[in-house]
Write a structure and sequence with these properties.
There is one protein chain. The chain is 2% helix and 42% strand. It has 1 helix and 38 strands. The protein has one helix spanning 82-88; strands spanning 17-21, 30-37, 44-45, 60-62, 92-95, 98-100, 105-106, 113-116, 123-125, 144-146, 155-157, 160-162, 167-176, 189-198, 202-205, 210-212, 215-217, 225-230, 233-240, 244-247, 250-254, 257-259, 269-272, 276-280, 283-285, 288-291, 295-298, 301-305, 308-310, 313-317, 321-323, 327-332, 335-337, 340-341, 351-353, 357-362, 365-367, 375-376. Strands 4-5-8-11-16-21-24-28-32-36 form a 10-stranded parallel beta sheet, covered by helices on one side. A 9-stranded parallel beta sheet has the order 6-9-12-17-22-25-29-33-37, with no helix packed on it. Strands 7-10-15-20-23-27-31-35-38 form a 9-stranded parallel beta sheet. A hairpin with a 2-residue loop joins strand 18 (225-230) and strand 19. The protein is globular. The N and C termini lie far apart (65 Å).
Length: 377
């Protein structure tokens, strides 16, 4: 039966539609239980969104268009925010098509599957935050937060993530005034406030997420700055990872795009402090930073596989891949093209390898340096 209405020509359905079992009756189907038929059989549905077909409470559903804060997260009464769905879910969340005006979306240590089922082009998270600086640092925020420190393994996929400005942490110490004012002597002290911003699209600390089919774009963190805020006080600004910043984590990035993000280090992504970041099938394009316009690594390991780093701009070092200090990085079967960094003989337009670190480049193409040499170690 090839569904053309004529006499059976072959055994079975040769040209039918795949339908998915909906055993629990929540209107969401099980990807592991299918049938091919000419029309929807009883007990089946057209989607494969269910992670547990024996539990009517999974998945929890968010709908930016028709959801409600008073919903229960079901098909008929979805939440209006992804955060509400995450808070209620134990296994999986689906976000329906639409634009979600959210930030500080906290996974709360849950190993959830969070899925924009319409795909990244139609499922957008964009809080449209204004870029912040030392005058309004508490206004900065990431889109996603994964910082339970418990090694949770969430899977986030099918989204465009935009408009984040970074997770901020502040500390104040008393130290030498660093010649911020000519009247200060060498032994005089100032109160120095340091702000560090991490991850515009996603801030990860101690968890082990996977990002798949995600577009991180237009996430802009504060620029590096040193400001004299009083006769005896200074403020320093640092930022890391415009798209993703991962610390003490095992982070996986698959089939994703990092476009037009910016930070002081790691315009696209930053791996810091005992992090392992595996990037495959992904694209870094037109990101900007002082160091590591596409990807920056510090005391960590970054592996690039089947990926493209193109047209990223670092004002100082490492237009493509930048390593600050100890770490082991690699680029395999990848392309680094048209990235730029500074103008000196030490900047490394494609790759900059810091002292004490190693970077292996195999079966890859590096081409199109326009200022400093392709590599510097």
């Amino acid at each position: 039966n090839d569904c053309d209405g004529a006499t059976d020509e072959v055994d079975g359905v040769a040209d039918g539609t795949t339908y998915y079992a909906d055993t629990d009756g929540d209107t969401y189907g099980d990807a592991g239980s299918t049938v091919s038929a000419c029309s929807v059989p009883s007990g089946y549905v057209e989607n494969d969104y269910d992670c547990d077909d024996g539990d009517t409470a999974e998945p929890r559903v968010a709908d930016a268009t028709s959801g409600s804060s008073s919903g229960d997260g079901s098909y008929g009464a979805p939440y209006d925010t992804i955060q509400a769905a995450i808070d209620a879910a134990n296994q999986c969340v689906i976000a329906l098509e639409g634009t979600y005006d959210e930030y500080n979306i906290d996974l709360g240590g849950k190993s959830l599957d969070v899925w924009g089922v319409a795909g990244w082009a139609d499922t957008v998270i964009d809080p449209r935050l204004s870029t912040c600086n030392y005058t309004n640092p508490t206004d900065c925020a990431p889109v996603f937060i994964m910082d339970s420190g418990g090694g949770a393994t969430p899977y986030v996929h099918g989204f465009t993530v935009s408009g984040g400005t970074g997770y901020g942490e502040q500390s104040t110490t008393t130290t030498t005034c660093a010649d911020s004012d000519p009247s200060h002597g060498e032994d005089e002290s100032c109160s120095v406030t340091t702000w560090r911003f991490c991850g515009g699209g996603a801030y990860v600390n101690g968890d082990d997420p996977t990002f798949g089919d995600v577009v991180f774009t237009d996430n802009d963190l504060p620029d590096f700055d040193q400001v004299t805020t009083g006769s005896w006080s200074q403020t320093w600004i640092y930022s890391f990872g415009g798209g993703v910043c991962a610390i003490d984590s095992i982070a996986t990035v698959e089939d994703s795009w990092f476009v037009d993000n910016s930070a002081d280090q790691g315009g696209g992504a930053y791996a810091g402090s005992s992090t392992t970041m595996a990037v495959s099938g992904s694209w870094f394009d037109d990101n900007a930073a002082s160091d590591g316009a596409a990807v920056a690594s510090a005391d960590s390991s970054v592996s690039l596989s089947g990926s493209i780093l193109a047209c990223n701009v670092a004002t100082t070092d490492g237009g493509g891949l930048y390593t600050e200090s100890s770490g082991t990085n690699s680029a395999y079967n990848s392309v680094l093209y048209g990235n730029t960094a500074g103008t000196a003989s030490t900047n490394g337009s494609q790759i900059y390898v810091g002292s004490g670190s190693t970077t292996a480049v195999t079966y890859s193409i590096s081409w199109g340096n326009t200022s400093s040499p392709l590599f510097y170690a």
